Amino acid sequence: MSLKVEALPYEYELPEDLSKLALVIIDMQRDFMEPGGFGDALGNDVLRLQAIVPALKELLAAFRALGLTVVHTIECHQPDLSDCPPSKLNRGGGALKIGDEGPMGRILVRGEPGNGIIPELAPLPGEVVIHKPGKGAFYATPLGAILAERGITHLLVTGVTTEVCVQTTMREANDRGYECLMVEDCTESYFPEFKQSTLEMVRAQGGIVGWTAPSTNVLAALAASRVSEVAPA
Fold first, then answer.
1. pLDDT in tens, 65-83
2. Who contacts 78 (Cβ-Cβ below 8 Å, separation ≥6)?
3. Is residue 111 classed as helix, strand or coil in its secondary structure?
4. How far is CA 167 from CA 64, 100, 195, in A?
5. Residue 23 in contact with residue 63, Cβ under 8 Å?
6. For 86-183, where are the alpha helices, taking DSSP H only?
7. Are 70 and 122 spatial neighbours (Cβ–Cβ below 8 Å)?
8. How far does Cα 82 stand from its chain's mean position?
9. Which of 1, 34, 137, 197 is the most buried (most CB within 10 A)?
10. 3-state DSSP assignment of residue 195
11. Which residue did the predictor score with more confidence, 90 or 28?
């Protein structure tokens, strides 16, 4: 049975075998979501990002209930910053730079308290956690190999921020042949106009990068898949 998500620019068709579908949750970490983290140090209103947590929790719960692949990413660097290029380290001129000591430990350093995923979305044992040094989740990580090993062909992309790490990951995935849908109310930006522009760019020209849809439409399709599994032949 073919299941479709009502989406833009047209319906997004889920794989007949839902085990080929993965949920990718980008960088829902304290450094970006809470006061005192890197996002705050750059002068952003971090409370904006917290608005997507309820919808993302519901989508995550649906994937867990179906036993589907969930991927969490964390932008971070080694304590010696050997994987952080000078161009990234020194850019911005903010009060705190990557590696500096902040209210939640060293900024964007792996293992520091602020680098962890927020408790509401904490990974469960067995879920994939990707530590990435760049904006995209495929660069210098094992993500591509993990998805290939699991036979994943379709990705639902969520997280923060829409125009930076989320969009970069979706474009990387598109170039690698994945069918990608960005879940509109499960991604957010510090700048609302940047989020809107990204959604429009992704689905422009017949879905040149992919599709977008609200989580309610995705959840409806996933619920339909459960009904079809128990329906009599």
1. 999 999 999 999 999 999 9
2. 84, 109, 110
3. coil
4. 24, 27, 10
5. yes
6. 86-89, 143-150, 167-175
7. no
8. 25
9. 137
10. helix
11. 28
